[in-house]
Design goal:
Pfam families: Ldh_1_C, Ldh_1_N. This protein has 332 residues and is α/β, with parallel strands linked by helices. The chain has helices at 17-27, 49-61, 76-79, 104-121, 135-144, 159-173, 207-210, 214-226, 228-236, 242-255, 304-328, and strands at 7-12, 38-43, 67-73, 85-88, 127-130, 154-156, 180-181, 185-186, 194-195, 201-202, 205-206, 264-269, 281-288, 294-296. Helices cover 41% and strands 17% of the residues. The termini are far apart. It binds (2S)-2-hydroxybutanedioic acid.
């Protein structure tokens, strides 16, 4: 049987902690499937190139049958050349005492350069997933800097938050995490995000009928999910890496696969769905149809509490946009 053409994937920050946890999973077939060859364009800044060489050597040493080529570069034009996916992982991670938004000034301009390079070099069908924080606003910056690439090909990551939220509910209810479904994380990947426990299910039941302690849901669950990244930094002394890489695999795989069951949380361009401000990259429930096109799930009933929380998170995104676009001289 003739083998498929490889999917070419660019990964920025490829020698960083998330990159190290991610590349081997892509190359082994966990992202695109066991019969889909992949080519990896590994992008690093100049000081990371020596470590990148070591990572590439290890990829070679895995003898992955699906890995057709490894490009190592610090040149964005080379790195994004003809790619099908651009995974923008590299950025300065936050340290203890910082919020993700504190990284705006540091990381924002990096995403202007990457957006431009994607615009000029990637396939027109390229899909871009931003992981580097603050990921929603960085994604918006990259999207604005790539005017020839359709806005609906840009994504930022809240799947890590969805996975975190599902585990918290499962542990509270003493059930397997696979019992938890329909849990959308809305808004910004920041402590203001809203994991919507009202619409979540545990087995066939509403999560709120299984976990009847309303105060736990509002006062423990919501802040624990929103602050989980910070708790990891405090515990590990470094920001999440393996779980972030796992969420990248989950996000891309599910964006490439027609949805059979549950929706998933992805930050996408808003067209005003559910009252979200149009033009922002904000997290909503996403399904993928039979021909691979994503759409925002319609008809989710939001409580007043949920609406208030989601509006506050989107207001934070509007504020981040104003700050970042002002600093970078971008227009809305
Ligand atoms: C996370 O949620 O773990 C990452 O976005 C890293 C961070 O700074 O919180």
């Amino acid at each position: 049987m003739k083998s498929k053409a490889p999917i070419r994937v660019a990964v920025t920050g490829a020698a960083g902690n998330i990159g190290y946890a991610l590349l081997f999973r892509i190359a082994s077939g966990q992202m695109f499937g066991p019969d889909q060859p992949v080519a990896l364009n590994l992008i690093e800044i100049e000081p990371g190139m020596a470590a990148l060489k070591g990572v590439a050597m290890e990829l070679d040493d895995c003898a992955f049958p699906l890995l057709t080529e490894i490009v190592q570069t610090s040149d964005l034009a080379v790195g994004f050349k003809d790619v099908d996916w651009a995974l923008l992982v590299g950025s300065v991670p936050r340290k203890q005492g910082m919020e993700r938004a504190d990284l705006l000034g540091i990381n924002g301009k990096v995403f202007v350069g990457q957006g431009k390079a994607i615009n000029d070099n990637a396939k027109p069908s390229v899909r871009v997933l931003v992981v580097g924080n603050p990921c929603n606003t960085n994604c918006l910056i990259a999207m604005k800097s790539a005017p020839d690439i359709p806005n609906n090909q840009f994504f930022a990551m809240t799947r890590l938050d969805e996975n975190r939220a599902k585990t918290q509910l499962a542990q509270k209810a003493s059930v397997s995490v696979k019992e938890v479904s329909e849990l959308c994380v809305w808004g910004n990947h920041s402590p203001t995000m809203f994991p919507d426990f009202y619409n979540a299910k545990i087995g066939r039941l509403k999560a709120t009928d299984v976990i009847t302690d309303k105060a736990w849901l509002t006062d423990t669950f919501v802040p624990v999910v929103g602050q989980r990244g910070k708790a990891i930094i405090e515990a590990r002394g470094a920001s999440s890496a393996a779980s972030a890489a796992n969420a990248v695999v989950d996000t891309v795989r599910d964006l490439c696969t027609p949805t059979r069951g549950d929706f998933h949380s992805v930050c996408v361009i808003s067209n005003g769905e559910y009252g979200t401000p149009a033009g922002l990259i904000t997290s909503m429930p996403i399904k993928v149809d039979a021909i691979g096109k994503w759409r925002v799930v319609e008809g989710v009933n939001l409580t007043d509490y949920a609406k208030e929380k989601i509006a506050a998170s989107n207001q934070e995104l509007l504020d981040e946009r104003e700050m970042a676009f002002g600093q970078l001289g971008l227009s809305i």
